[in-house]
Write a structure and sequence with these properties.
homotetramer; nine-stranded mixed beta sheet; 8 helices; globular
Chain lengths: ~300, ~300, ~300, ~300
Amino acid sequence: MSEEILRKLALQVRNWGRWGPDDEIGTLNFITPEAIASACALGIPLQREGPQSGTRQRFNPIHTMFRDGGDAPKTPAEVTALQGYGGSDDWIVMPLQCVTQWDSLAHVFYEGQMYNGYDAALVTSSGTAKNSIDKTKSRIVGRGVLLDVARWKGVRALEPGYAITVGDLDATAAAQRVDVRRGDLLLIRTGHMSRYLDRKDWRHFDLDDSPGVSVHTAPWMHAREIAAVASDNYAVEVRPSELPPFRSPFHICSIPNMGLTLGEIFYLEELAEDCAADGRYAFLLVAPPLPVTRGVGTPINPYAIK
Amino acid sequence: MSEEILRKLALQVRNWGRWGPDDEIGTLNFITPEAIASACALGIPLQREGPQSGTRQRFNPIHTMFRDGGDAPKTPAEVTALQGYGGSDDWIVMPLQCVTQWDSLAHVFYEGQMYNGYDAALVTSSGTAKNSIDKTKSRIVGRGVLLDVARWKGVRALEPGYAITVGDLDATAAAQRVDVRRGDLLLIRTGHMSRYLDRKDWRHFDLDDSPGVSVHTAPWMHAREIAAVASDNYAVEVRPSELPPFRSPFHICSIPNMGLTLGEIFYLEELAEDCAADGRYAFLLVAPPLPVTRGVGTPINPYAIK
Amino acid sequence: MSEEILRKLALQVRNWGRWGPDDEIGTLNFITPEAIASACALGIPLQREGPQSGTRQRFNPIHTMFRDGGDAPKTPAEVTALQGYGGSDDWIVMPLQCVTQWDSLAHVFYEGQMYNGYDAALVTSSGTAKNSIDKTKSRIVGRGVLLDVARWKGVRALEPGYAITVGDLDATAAAQRVDVRRGDLLLIRTGHMSRYLDRKDWRHFDLDDSPGVSVHTAPWMHAREIAAVASDNYAVEVRPSELPPFRSPFHICSIPNMGLTLGEIFYLEELAEDCAADGRYAFLLVAPPLPVTRGVGTPINPYAIK
Amino acid sequence: MSEEILRKLALQVRNWGRWGPDDEIGTLNFITPEAIASACALGIPLQREGPQSGTRQRFNPIHTMFRDGGDAPKTPAEVTALQGYGGSDDWIVMPLQCVTQWDSLAHVFYEGQMYNGYDAALVTSSGTAKNSIDKTKSRIVGRGVLLDVARWKGVRALEPGYAITVGDLDATAAAQRVDVRRGDLLLIRTGHMSRYLDRKDWRHFDLDDSPGVSVHTAPWMHAREIAAVASDNYAVEVRPSELPPFRSPFHICSIPNMGLTLGEIFYLEELAEDCAADGRYAFLLVAPPLPVTRGVGTPINPYAIK
C-alpha cells in the first residue's frame, strides 16, 4: 500500500532524461543566469591526488564510504527490513588547510604570541581558545578584486622565486582599471597553479619554489586596509624566502601582526579568463568558512559572482 | 639581520588593539556593511557536541591538531632551526553529512537506481561514479526564499510529527508576501532546531520525531520547478514517516526521482529574525559545496545576502 | 599464457571445502593443540558498537574500506588493466585506548609531571617525548596470573562501587592456590564486563559505576613488585572514586608515581572458565603493544597461553 | 583531605629514579629473563615516516592527541574542577595494512571469489561478511620458523627482483638445521628491509622492486601444510611479477585459493641475529591480530619467544 503510493508519487515527479541522459545535477538546472547570478568557483577538488606531499604533516583528503551500492537492500524483504531502498553515505579525513583554504589568525605565532597579543599557549591539542576560524563565520563576503599579475606581465606564469612588488601590484591594478579599496578581499594571480594544472599532476606543489608576494608588500596592504588576501600558490608569499632563515616572513607580518586573513591554493584560472573577457576585475566574493569550533583553518569553495 | 628587518616590518603593520583587546578577526573588520553586503550564516558549528548520536553511523566532527602552542620553538636557536616562530595546524575527521549540508543526487537509491537512472552499483567504496557532489561545484547560488512556517502558525516550533502540507506552504508564502519561482533555493523553517538551541543540547536531534514536509509536497515542488529545498530539521521531511515502513519517502521522491538537491540541519534562526524585521523573505543564497571528488554529500556554511 | 599458468597453480593449491563449506580461516587450521600451544584471546572486538559513549572524547573504532567487492574488475580487460582480480583494503580511525588496551606511562600526570619526573609539557599535539608506548615494544610478555575476585566471592559480578581490598586479593590468591610474584602481569577479574556481555549492549560501560581495585591496593602492588595490572572494567579502579573530587586516584598512584602499566577493558570470561576448569591460574601472557611512536596508549589483543 | 591522603599514597609507591633518571618503562623492569621468557618484537614503528608512499591508497599512520600537557589543569581550582591532575589521550588514523601486518583471507579475490568460494560481493563498504580478520582472533600462535635466505646466500640482502625458489627454501632449512612442519608459521628473510633501515629512509619501500618468494613456491607451501607465511618485504612475493600482467600472482595462489594467511613488512633483523647467534631457528611465535569486526587486515607486533 505504502509502496504503491510511493511509486505513484515517485513516477509523477521523476525527471530522468529531462536534461539529457548524462545529466548529474537535476533540478539545479533550473537555476539559470537569467534568473540569478552566475558564479566562478575557486575551490580545487578534494581528492587523494592533490597538492599535499605529506612532507610537512599535511596530507590530501581521504574520502571513504559508510554505505554504498553494495550495501543496498536487494530484495523486497530487505527493503522492508531496512526501511527503504538504501543509499550511500560518506566521510572524510583531511587537514583543514589541505585544499583551497583560509588560515585563521591562530595559524602563525610571532615571539610566542598570536594576533592581538594572545599567548600561543592558548593553542593546545584541543584547538585554539582565541582567533579560531569560527569567529569569522559570517564575515567573509565582500568586494573581491583580482590582480592578475601574470597576465599583466604577459606570461602564463611568473617564475618560481619571483617576488611580486608593490610596483607590480599598482601597475597591474592600473592596467586592469580597477582600484583596491578598504575592506576588499584581494586575489592575486601568479599563474603558478597553471603549471600543475597543465601537467595534470599536483606533485611537489607544496615543496617547489614559487612566485608570490614580497614581504615588502605588507605595508602596502596595511595602508590600503584590505580585509584579506589570497593567491593561486601554496602560501601567498614568494618561495624561497627573502629573509632566510625565516621560511615565511610575509606570514609573520600578516597573520600575527596585521591580523590579515590569508587564502591559499585558490583556483583562479576561470575567473581570470572571465575578467579578461569582460574587463571587470571587481565582483562579489563569497567565501564562507566552515565554522570549526577552536579551528585554525578551513577548506573553502569561494564563489566570485558578477 | 633578517630578524631585524622582519621585526621592523612586523611592528609597522601591527594592528593589535586596533579593534579592542578582545578582537579575534583582525582586518576582516574593514568589511563594513557600507562597503559591501552583510550576510546571515546558516551553518552550525563543527564540533564534538553536535546533532549526531552515532546511532546510524554518522558521528560529530572530530577536530584535532598537528601542531599547537606546545610545539612552538621556545629559544632563538629553535626559531632558527625550525625556520620561524612556529604556528598551529589542524585536521578533521567527519561524515560529509554531519552538520549543515547538501545531499548529492547519489545519496538515495530507488529500486536499485540513482537519479537519471544510473545503477546504484556505481557507488562503491571508492565513491560514486555518477551524481557526485562535485558536479554541483559552481552551481549552488541563486534566489533564496524563506518560508517560515512556524512563524506563520504562530508557534516557536511546529510539533514533532507535524507534516507540512502544500496548503501550509502556499499560505505561508502569501502571508509573507513572497512568491516561489522557478530555480529558487527554498528554505523551510519548522522551528525544530530552536528546541535544541534553547536547551543548549543537540542530543537526539537525529533520532527524535520531527516536524517536516509531507511527502505530498513533492508534486508541488516539482510543478514549481524549484532548484533545491532545505530545512532546519534533520531530514527535511516529517518524522515519523507518513508511509511506513519507508523511513524517508520524501527523500525517495525528491533525490533519485526528481533529482532535487536537499539541504539539512540549516541554522535559520537569525535569518528568520532578519526577514521578519524587514519583511523581505527573498535574498541571494550562496551555498558552495566542497567539491569532493566522487563524494555524496558536503558540509556547508551558506550565506543569505540581502 | 600467464593466466593459464596462474590458473593451474591456483587450482593445484586450492583448499576450498577442505575444512568444510563454512570455514573462514584456511591454513590456520593446521595449527593444532598437539602441535603448539592454544591461547585464550583477551581482546574485545573493534567495531562501532563498543564501550565508548563519546562523552569523554573517546569514540568506538570507525572501520572503513578503500576498496571492496564493488571495485573489483569485472571483465578480462579490467583484470588486465588493473593487474589482477582485485581485492579489498581497509583502514580505521580509533582512539588508542578505546578497546582492550595498555595505558603508557605518559597517560596520567601528577602535579605537572609524568612518571620519573618528566615534565607534562613534554606531551604536545605531536605526542609525548617521554614514556611513550613504543618504549615497551618488546617488553610485555611474562608470567600472567589471574585473580578472579568475583568467582571467589561467589558472584557473577561484583557490585558497582565495590572497592577490591588487599584482603580480597590475598584471599583470592590463596583460594586459587596461586602466588603473586615479582614481575608478574596481574589480571584482576571483577565480573563487571559480564553484565554488558550478558545484555549484549556495551552502552554506558564507560560511564557507569563499576567495581574495581581500591586506591589502597597500590602499596600492596608496589611491595609485590608486579610489572603490570589489568582488569575487565573500564579503568581498573573502583568507580565512584574513594577520594573525591579526584576521579581516578589509583591511576595517579600507579601511572605517574609507581610507573605501573595499566591494562583496561580486558575480556577475561573465557580465561576465567579455563582457569576454573583446570585449577591453574598462572600462564604465559603475551600482550604486545603496537609500537606507536610518541603514543600514549595502544589497543591490544593479549594471549594467555598455557 | 583527599589530596593529602592521595599525596601520601603517591609518595609511598613512587619509583622515580629507581631504574635511573632516563627510565621510561617503570615496573615493566621487574620482568626479567630469569623470571620469564624474553622476546624479539617483529613490528615496525607506527609513525608518519613509514613504508607507505600513498600511491596505492595506503598511507602511513597519522597519530594525534585529544589531550596533552597544554590542556592539563594548572591551578588547584582547575585540578578540582577537572577531577584530577590531567593526562593525555591519543588516537590514530591508519590503513590496517600499513605497517607490520596480517592479510585476512578476504584481502584478495580470484575470478570474483574469495577463499572457500565466497562471493567477492560480500565485501562492501561496511567490510567483509566472510573471511574477516576477527575470525582468526585467538588462532595466530604456534611454532615459528625463520628461514634466513639472505644469510644462507651470504649477502646482506637479496637483489631486488630475485625470486626465492623451492630449492632456496630447502637449502636454507638444511643449512640452518631446522625443519618446516605442518602448522608452522614460516618467516622468510630476504634482507630487503635492511636496505631501508640502513639508509634510515622508508621511502619507496612500497614501490621499489623487491626480492621475494616465487609464485612456484606455492605448491611447496601447500604440500608442507604450513599455517602462515610472512616476510620482511612489502608483499612476501618477488617484484616485478613473474607472471605479468598479474601484479601479485603468489597472492592469488595463496590467499583466495590456498587460504594461506600472509604477513608483510615483518622486522626480522634482531630475530635473525639472535637465531644466528644460538643456532636455533624455531621458536614460539605469538602474533595476535586486532579483532576488527568485518576487517580485512590488521596491524601487529609479533613476538618471537625462545
